[in-house]
């Protein structure tokens, strides 16, 4: 798994670092911490310290330390190993003392880019082939990033991978998952599993009906998804919702639960929830929002 964490200087970025560290600990993900500065001219040589001078550099260093502090040093997959002489079996029954450097088992990159923040985040996610973009946001109202209004919404709408918008929430009690049961991907099902584990929450899976009944294939897929989570000892259940009332249902649930929507290219939810409605969902939600692809 590859996670891109987009950060700025606001408190919600420190909050998202904590959540991503827990997620990375469960998945052993490769992680990139990305800061984006719009003032490229601020980058230069410092008079008292070699390196770049930019408002985000110290923040990025602090975020890296906070991320690494989540792990015990001896067990951390991101810890850089020292170089030592070791006896290595070069042939059967023959050992040679070699100078061996053992690096970290997983990557933790810290990257600073200049330019339009949305474009740079999306470009970095493409370069990293990210599975998930995570970024923070205030609990209520629009989340401005360098003066850009509705910033998380714009990232989420244009990303090709899943996006997790983390809002500062004391406790997430329930994850409500709206899937297109005819097209849902295995990667998305596993991502939901990770979110439930991360937040230690219950899982409600929404089954869409055309009034009162489910399509036979949808019913079969829902049963398979439910069994998948039950085998993993995740408390999950299915709630049937009429497609015509899905929008109002999601709006109500977003006030008290974390929402997860599968927005893949073939998903029926992309028709029910076009960009404008996704923007309102992210802005109006009291808790975090996960858009799956």
Please describe what this structure looks like.
The chain has helices at 11-27, 57-68, 117-128, 151-158, 186-199, 216-231, 246-253, 269-272, 275-284; strands at residues 2-7, 30-37, 83-91, 94-101, 108-114, 132-137, 162-167, 174-178, 202-209, 236-242, 258-262, 289-292. The protein has 293 residues and is of the alpha/beta class. It folds into two domains: 1-74 and 106-168, HUPs (Rossmann fold), CATH 3.40.50.620; 169-293, Rossmann fold (3-Layer(aba) Sandwich). The strands form two sheets. It has a ten-stranded mixed β-sheet with strand order 5-2-1-6-7-12-11-8-9-10, sandwiched between helices. It is globular. The two termini are 14 Å apart.
In short:
By secondary structure, this protein is an alpha/beta fold. It is built from nine helices and twelve strands.
What fraction strand?
25-35%
Q: What's the CATH C level of the largest domain? A: Alpha Beta
* CATH superfamily placement of the largest domain: HUPs
Please provide the ordered H/E string of secondary-structure elements.
EHEHEEEHEHEEHEHEHEHHE
Question: How would you describe the oligomerization state of the chains in this entry?
Answer: single chain
Low-confidence stretches: 40-49
The total count of strands amounts to 12
Rg? 22 Å
Broad structural category: alpha/beta
N-to-C span: 14 Å
Report helical residue fraction. Answer: 25-40%
Largest sheet, in brief, is: 10 strands, mixed
* Number of individual domains: 2
User: What's the pLDDT, averaged over the residues?
Assistant: 83
At CATH level 2, the architecture of the largest domain is 3-Layer(aba) Sandwich
- CATH fold naming of the largest domain: Rossmann fold
Strand order across the biggest sheet?
A: 5-2-1-6-7-12-11-8-9-10
Helix tally?
A: 9
Q: What characteristic shape results from the CA principal axes? A: globular
């Amino acid at each position: 798994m590859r996670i891109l964490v987009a950060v700025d200087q606001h408190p919600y970025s420190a909050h998202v670092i904590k959540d991503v560290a827990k997620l990375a600990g469960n998945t052993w993900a490769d992680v990139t911490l990305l800061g984006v500065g719009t003032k490229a001219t601020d980058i230069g040589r410092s008079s008292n310290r070699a390196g770049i001078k930019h408002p985000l550099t110290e923040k990025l260093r602090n975020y890296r330390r906070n991320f690494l502090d989540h792990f015990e040093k001896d067990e951390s997959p991101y810890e850089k190993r020292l170089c030592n002489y070791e006896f290595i079996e070069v042939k059967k029954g023959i050992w040679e003392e070699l100078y061996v450097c053992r690096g970290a088992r997983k990557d933790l990159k810290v990257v600073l880019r200049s330019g339009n923040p949305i474009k740079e985040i999306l470009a970095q996610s493409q370069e990293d082939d990210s599975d998930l973009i995570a970024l923070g946001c205030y609990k209520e109202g629009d989340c401005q990033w360098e003066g850009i209004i509705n910033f998380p919404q714009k990232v989420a709408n244009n990303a090709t991978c899943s996006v997790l918008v983390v809002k500062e929430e004391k406790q997430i009690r329930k994850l409500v998952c709206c899937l297109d049961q005819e097209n849902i991907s295995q990667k998305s099902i596993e991502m939901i599993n990770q979110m439930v584990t991360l937040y230690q929450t219950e899982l409600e899976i929404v089954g869409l009906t055309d009034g009162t009944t489910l399509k036979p294939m949808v019913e079969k897929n829902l049963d398979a998804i439910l069994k998948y989570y039950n085998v993993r000892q995740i408390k999950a259940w299915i709630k049937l919702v009429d497609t015509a009332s899905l929008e109002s249902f999601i709006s109500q649930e977003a006030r008290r639960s974390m929402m997860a929507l599968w927005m893949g290219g073939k998903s029926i939810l992309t028709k029910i929830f076009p960009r404008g409605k996704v923007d309102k969902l992210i802005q109006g939600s009291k808790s975090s929002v996960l858009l799956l692809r």
